[in-house]
User: Fold this.
Amino acid sequence: MAEPLRLFIDRTETPIGELVIVADREGRLRAIDWTDYEARMRQLLRLHYGEGGFELVPERNPGGLTTTMSTYFAGDLGIIASMPVETGGTPFQRTVWAALRDIPCGTTVSYSELARRIGRPAAVRAVGLANGANPVGIVVPCHRVVGANGSLTGYGGGIERKRWLLAHEGHAASQSLLPFAR
Amino acid sequence: MAEPLRLFIDRTETPIGELVIVADREGRLRAIDWTDYEARMRQLLRLHYGEGGFELVPERNPGGLTTTMSTYFAGDLGIIASMPVETGGTPFQRTVWAALRDIPCGTTVSYSELARRIGRPAAVRAVGLANGANPVGIVVPCHRVVGANGSLTGYGGGIERKRWLLAHEGHAASQSLLPFAR
DNA sequence: AGCGCTCTCGCGGTTTTCGGACATGACCAT
DNA sequence: ATGGTCATGTCCGAAAACCGCGAGAGCGCT
Assistant:
């Protein structure tokens, strides 16, 4: 009944692949992902806003977000911390995502530590799940969460990109971090 | 996200109980039910428009619909046929409800006949279900559907009311119609 | 011992799947 | 007549599967 949410979609190249960016009328980031995972991103949007609950309109640099992302990749790391974001998700997921934004750039946290921080020390796997369901990767830095033993464990965009992002953010040990525990 | 749909709610007395009436800004009927089943009506609204997808604002005689209903109960039977109606529902349900409005006042149809009319002769039970899910009873005359053997079978507001409505509409045999097959 | 690896199992939120209930009625076998 | 079977759409609740984890046990090597 209520006309669908009007969202704007744009794309931009980065050193590790093309990004798809989705913003709303107010210039808040609603979704972002790598072009090669665009299908998954659209699926997530459908899940959050319903089948016909939104429409994607191509537009250049909506809300200036495309520029912001380029700036981040160019080396201005702090800029994403203040980027406006709006998401759906369950209460639990939103709690996890909020906690993600509190992880300082250049550092990492383990899944269990993150679970502890939101007051649900036992919900470790659930935190992993919520991490994977994050619609606004990079900006809400799910890549800063690693295994308890320092292994990179997983990343929706591919482990290689996770490693690159951490290195880009100057994480001291990121060069030696292996995909799996050695 | 999108602010909730603003709906107006009113009540009116009838010979067979109090009605709750819900209209939209454009004066179209969105829902109607007997006060003693108001909980079910609200449930249906939640189902169609989502948990926080609408709000009910008390208002006297919204869109003049309350007057229209009184007029119907006073004896002007034809007036409901032209009453504006807007509903959610699945494609199948909407098809069934549309077919209901084509049943002339003062006549009845069996569930199977109705199923045949919408081109789904086998979906007899499904038609019954869709009938029960009708959010705008009386106006979309689900009470004009009876069992193949003439029994009244069922009605969301109670069999007695179904019988009364049919009698009110001058259905010839309604006086002798029994709740269940004899 | 001490290290490091593998395997197993429990953890918990979300999604998916499945079965049942229902405002019927045609058909077939007792 | 009576009674069981089955088709059909949709919602709901229960149960199970799914995982971007991690602690602990068992085992083979220095």
Notes: The longest strand of chain A covers residues 5-14. The two ends of chain A are 55 Å apart (CA to CA). The CA atoms of residues 33 and 40 of chain A lie 9 Å apart.
